[in-house]
Amino acid sequence: MPTATPKPSPRDRREFYRITDTLPICIQLETDQTEGEFTERSVNLSGGGIGVVVNQPYQPNEILSLTLRLPDEVVFKASMEVLRVDPLPGRKVSYRLHARFVGLTSQNRELLIRHILRLQRDRLKEHYSA
């Protein structure tokens, strides 16, 4: 069972704007060299990290490999450190994973932030044109 770690302060959590999107995603241990399988999931995404429901109880401080398939088949790859994993009540093997990106290049961070801003713009445009 995952051990509880202190929650980040609101200041730590909000360095970057967050948005929720549904994307094909692959998460695996950084040491796992096999070809991972993509599953479409709802992800809470920012330039600093990710929140996503997973079926494996990763441990705090573990380093994971993340691959996202962004629109237009753009592939985003990053390493991330597990901050905490919260069991979801009423679900046998489901956990909310909270992780921060580590070693992210400025180019990859910009790619991710552009995706987030484009998604926000599209949603606002759709909302105000209705």
Describe the structure.
With 130 residues, the protein is an alpha+beta fold. Helix content is 22%, strand content 42%. The protein is built from 2 helices and 6 strands. The protein has helices at 10-13, 106-129; strands at 19-29, 39-45, 49-54, 63-70, 74-87, 95-102. It has a 6-stranded antiparallel β-barrel. It is globular and about 45 Å long. It starts with 9 loop residues before the first helix and ends with a helix. 18% of the residues are buried.
| Topology pattern, helix = H, strand = E | HEEEEEEH
Low-confidence stretches: 1-8
Estimated radius of gyration: 15 Å
**How would you state the average pLDDT, rounded?**
86
What is the number of beta strands? 6
* Order of neighbouring strands in the sheet with most strands: 1-2-3-6-5-4
Task: Name the features.
six-stranded antiparallel barrel, alpha+beta, single chain, disordered N terminus
Task: Summarize this entry quickly.
The protein is an alpha+beta fold. Helix content is 22%, strand content 42%.
Question: Topology, please?
Answer:
Layout: H1 10-13, E1 19-29, E2 39-45, E3 49-54, E4 63-70, E5 74-87, E6 95-102, H2 106-129
Antiparallel strand pairs: 1-2, 1-4, 2-3, 3-6, 4-5, 5-6
